[in-house]
Amino acid sequence: MIGICEVLGAGFQFDNAERRDWLFRDIDFQIPEGECVALMGPSGTGKTTLLHGLAGIAQLSEGTSKLNGTQISGISQREVREHLRESVAIIFQEHLLIPSLILFENVELSWALAGKPKNITPTTVLDRLAIGDERDSLPEAVSGGQAQRVAIARALAGGPKLLFADEPTGSLDEDNARRAMGEITDWCSAQDAHALIVTHDPGIAELCDRIVRLDEGTINA
């Protein structure tokens, strides 16, 4: 079980003309079990980069990210995938559904790969996100907002102990955004799971347990 997600002394450099600048540096924070944290800040401050570094899908320039005491930064992508597969889910800004599978199969695949968790089913999570009526449709046949709800359902169907989400409600209307966030926060509370949600929407951030702001290279809890 993943107990704590934490990042220590995290920094990320990027090329800027003829020099290398720091996007952020000396970032420390952690997410306790059962907590849903919103990460906010102006565009271009590195919110997505920090999330990717925590999740192990991007390499930090310095510092470490740990999941349940295991250092994720610096290990191979194969090791990252093995560590994340059974307990971590990621929701990207794009839904990234498999186009050849119907919506139900996209969610069912995540559920099956996670060992078919008994505390959730593909049908249940699709219905809770008000997308069950489209379960037999291909991704190309539904709207972007509907596809994004399926991506959220796919993530939750894996029964994650940790959820990383990058603007998960950006393409949703207000009602569906709140419904989706309700499912995420309810999941965290019921399963002692934790989540990091990158968002620009103050209304969505307020639904989380805590708001963290990244601005001018530093983080403020």
From TrEMBL:
PROSITE patterns: ABC_TRANSPORTER_1, ABC_TRANSPORTER_2. Keywords: ATP-binding, Nucleotide-binding. Residues 2-221 form the ABC transporter domain. SMART domains: AAA. SUPFAM superfamilies: P-loop containing nucleoside triphosphate hydrolases (SSF52540). This is ABC transporter domain-containing protein. The keyword Nucleotide-binding applies. One of its GO terms (molecular function) is ATP hydrolysis activity. GO terms for cellular component: plasma membrane. It comes from the Bacteria. It comes from Corynebacterium yudongzhengii.
